[in-house]
Amino acid sequence: MYACWSIKGGSGTTVFASALALLLAEHQGEATVIDMGGDVPSVLGMAEPAGTGIRDWLSSTDRDPQGLVDLRVAATSRLHVIPAGSASSFDTSALDDLVQSVTNQQVVVDFGSLQPPDSVRRAARADWLVVRPCYLALRRAARLTHRPAGIVLLKEQGRALTTRDVQSVVGAPVVAEITVADGIARSVDAGLLATRLPTQLTEELRVLL
Questions:
Q1: How far apart, in Å, are the Cα atoms of 166 and each of 15, 126, 140, 160, 175?
Q2: What CA–CA distance (Å, rounded) separates 168 from 124?
Q3: Among candidate residues 79, 13, 43, 47, the one with its CA nearest the CA of residue 188
Q4: Domain range 2-128+175-208, CATH architecture
Q5: How far is CA 1 from CA 20, 166, 177, in A?
Q6: N or C terminus of the chain: which is more exposed, having fewer CB within 10 Å?
Q7: What is the pTM (predicted TM-score) of this model?
């Protein structure tokens, strides 16, 4: 399981997680992206899924692994999405059941601005904070009680903060640098990310697989 999260909205976590899942599906033949925040279908150009989702599964008392599989919706022939669902809250201890249910599977979890608990982060194949070189974001990152295993840095033109600054404040290594390019936004806005992953984005993501 690849756990992707942020400490501030608008960091680009959902686009990153969706693109990573697409590339993972291409490499491994199949993958699933679990949407904790609710925006993955829109990023992938899908119709909004109806019915239950991951938050409903986590808030239920019967967290059966097969029930998790049944929540999957096809985004492409190789990529499935488990949508967010409608439940507004759940006990974060239920995330341990999620980890057990997806062990040895090709799964990317978009936690959005929900920081995964330590038990989940220790069990995950990857624990990545997605962040921009933004002063406000780094102020929040400096207050983290537990550091991520790695940082995915979304690079923007005109920012004064460097990769070294980000690593110093967060206290973790930058494992990938993703260029924030107009082509990515155009692909998302046109609903084409799932079928036309920008070449530069693909190349920058490969270092993580």
A1: 20, 19, 12, 11, 12
A2: 24
A3: 43
A4: 3-Layer(aba) Sandwich (3.40)
A5: 12, 25, 20
A6: C
A7: 0.95
Task: Break the chain into its structural domains and give their ranges.
Answer: 2-128+175-208
CA atoms in the 13 A half-sphere facing the CB of 121: 16
Residue 117's pLDDT is what?
92
Burial of 199 (0-12, 13-18, 19+ CB in 10 A): exposed
141-199 pLDDT, tens digit per residue, is 999 988 999 999 999 988 999 999 999 999 999 999 999 999 999 999 999 999 989 99
Mean pLDDT across 54-62: 95
- Contact between 110 and 102 under an 8 Å Cβ cutoff? The reply is no
Amino acid at 154: L
Both tokens of 147, joined, read 């550091």
Number of Cβ atoms within 10 Å of the Cβ of 84: 22
The DSSP string of 132-186 is -S-HHHHHHHTT-SS--SEEEEEE-TT----HHHHHHHHTS-EEEEEE--HHHHH
